Amino acid sequence: MKTNLSNFDFDLPLDLIAQKPLPERDQSRLLVVDRKKGTLFHDIFPNLSRHLIVPPLMVFNNTQVVPAKIFATLQHNGKLVELILTRKISSGIWEVLMKGKMKPGTKLNFQGSLLVGYFIKRNAERAVIEFSSEQILDDYLKNYGRMPLPPYIHRKQEDSAIIQQQDKIRYQTVFASQSGAIAAPTAGLHFTKTHLKKLKGNNIKMAYLTLHVGPGTFKPIRTEDFSKHEMEAEIFRITPKNWNLITDSKKKGQPILAVGTTSTRALEAQAFRKPIRKTRSGSTNCFIIPGWHFKNVDHLLTNFHLPKSTLYLLVSAFCGKTLAKKAYSEAITQKYRFFSYGDAMLLL
């Protein structure tokens, strides 16, 4: 099988990249893709259940996005820098996404707080920062932290409090409960509590797992041969209650609908052969590309993704390269909204 990344490229008009959410979560459009028939159907998200003829088990990722983006000024020159906290190494020491070169020991000041940070070193594409106090850092994140939106959603340091608050609410699923992600599982953003209640009323069962979406979700594939790309490991957790729901559904032949690519990767990294009594946790760098044999996911609900991305490769693996291209071409022609704050696609 050819693994040329250029075969998974497409032209996307910039005006189709959604810069802000719609007024209501479930107002988005829904492109329904029937893999067996190779057909496309245009609908709206509130009509999702109409397309689930056999009630599936819906599996959601309940990770919660941390408001991990903060700003600091460099002590020696007053330059403003942006930090996104990605991984806690030890108390007060964090790995962060931060641009620019600086010398070890460079001091960072945080406006309106006693918090200070010191640049220690670079870990590949990340910087290691030692903060003066873990507790003060926690408080600072609560008071001043912003949502770490993807780079294609344009936000400025001087954005109003109204915009910041809107992102805190809307770049978070209504069922988020396990803190630890720096990106939202965006397929879940379309659901309201009312819609979830309606789905349950339609005899659709639900299970939850946790996969903390990390900085690797923004990492582009930099090799033409995408099989050489390495996914960054992300932490997952599945409780016995949810594991056993999935295992039981598989045993009964009930279809499993993965809500999002993160749920898909977490599901496909496991073998649901028998019930468990203890929570299953660990990390996964599951990289799903065309040719993948899906063993746990029967349907997929997802947003529209970047060309040449790991996410678009996953969609192409699930419905085939030709059908994925057809669906995306139609979505572009019909001016669907793309990426995190965009519309949804249901792959049956």
UniProtKB/TrEMBL annotation:
<dbReference type="Pfam" id="PF02547">
    <property type="entry name" value="Queuosine_synth"/>
</dbReference>
<protein>
    <recommendedName>
        <fullName>S-adenosylmethionine:tRNA ribosyltransferase-isomerase</fullName>
    </recommendedName>
</protein>
<dbReference type="GO" id="GO:0051075">
    <property type="term" value="F:S-adenosylmethionine:tRNA ribosyltransferase-isomerase activity"/>
</dbReference>
<keyword id="KW-0808">Transferase</keyword>
<dbReference type="InterPro" id="IPR036100">
    <property type="entry name" value="QueA_sf"/>
</dbReference>
<dbReference type="InterPro" id="IPR042118">
    <property type="entry name" value="QueA_dom1"/>
</dbReference>
<dbReference type="GO" id="GO:0008616">
    <property type="term" value="P:tRNA queuosine(34) biosynthetic process"/>
</dbReference>
<keyword id="KW-0949">S-adenosyl-L-methionine</keyword>
<dbReference type="InterPro" id="IPR003699">
    <property type="entry name" value="QueA"/>
</dbReference>
<dbReference type="InterPro" id="IPR042119">
    <property type="entry name" value="QueA_dom2"/>
</dbReference>
<keyword id="KW-0963">Cytoplasm</keyword>
<keyword id="KW-0671">Queuosine biosynthesis</keyword>
